[in-house]
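Worked example 3. Consider a protein that binds adenosine-5'-triphosphate.
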Amino acid sequence: MDKLLILHFGELSTKGNNRALFIDCLYSNIRRLLKDYGEARVEKSPAHIYVSLPEGYAREVEVVSLLREVPGIQRLGLGYRLGRDIREIKEASLEILLRERPASWKAKVHRADKSFPLDSYGVANEVGGYVLQNGGPSVDVHDPKMSLEIEIRPEAAYVSYEEIPGAGGYPLGMNGKVLLLLSGGIDSPVAAYRLLRRGILVECLHFASPPYTSEAVMDKLHDILRKLNRFQAKIRLHVVPFTALQEAIYRHVDEPYCITVMRRMMMRIAAKASEKYRCPAIATGESVGQVASQTLESMKTINEVTNVPVIRPLAVSDKLAIIEDAKKIGTYEISIRPYEDCCTIFAPRKPKTKPRIEEARKMEERFDFAPLVEEALQGISDFVISAEEGDIDI
Ligand code: ATP
Ligand code: MG
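Given these inputs, the predicted complex is written out as structure tokens:
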């Protein structure tokens, strides 16, 4: 018999019209993900998405581990599709329980099709009685070691015996796209991952200041994005030439305000770029309190230059939790490779932890920065990092 993976969606995300959109989006994402797994067949229905695997399919473990990471799947049930016939349900249940041999079990019945002659209680009773009479394991309704989930739908009955937790969240692409400020550090790739898990696509913007920052950072970004390709198959990266602007800032702005003004310039550029790339929001890897430029006062002063929403997925995350995620997605080892960041190169000895808007504005009036902002925007180079081609295209 074909094995069936029954994909369950989160309840919250599946209300009203959103439901069809959610399922369509998840369905096409899964089809794309499994396109090289020809024998794994993906089907959708209004209730679930099913992936059927032929009996003895050698790549079952691989398919399951791929699906576990797909945003939008709350949990995966492992089971079978049966006819809508109580005898068939009883026999399949017994076969599973004799094979899996849990210390105890209980039936969890969901009768989605009310025209089925037995109600949920009746089905559970019939199955329980049959299993016990035929030497199956005993029932424990309070603390079973295995839940046998039986679902009766208009087209078929389904029985599943193993629950595998999924990534949760929303299908990728369902919640639009943001422009993520990607540095070479630990945090911004984790921010990307947290966005992707919520169904938000990312497009990346990086500020490079050669020769102060080395060319090696490009390899780093490339390697990081290749790790993220597991979640988003094609990621655009835009690299902003930031050197001239940064030099001007350090020439004209008082040292304690350099970081603040630099970040305000980054935000101005990001805001313009977000329009160009059709991203309604910007995202960063900032986390409140982590460094001087990440205090609430500092965020307020930096944010003042734009009204494009800035999403900070890590705003209140623990550094250890961030590192744990970075290790999980495989970006940690890449991020800790030594490199010069444009922020660290010019890092002032005593940055302002509570920079004031008026003060930042005053410093910006000392020099006409606008043409340099424009130049930086004009000089952006675009790359695509893609799972398929496996390399950077310009
Ligand atoms: P990260 O580990 O992501 O580099 P961080 O802890 O080093 O973060 P900062 O260097 O202060 O913190 O940067 C905060 C955020 O600003 C980053 O997460 C990133 O979103 C953005 N950022 C910093 N430097 C750059 C850069 N050179 N290019 C693009 N974005 C940047
Ligand atoms: Mg950094």
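Take a moment to read the result before moving on. The pocket of magnesium ion (ligand 2) is lined by residues 183, 185, 341, 343 (CB under 6 Å). Residues 292 and 389 are 40 Å apart (CA to CA).
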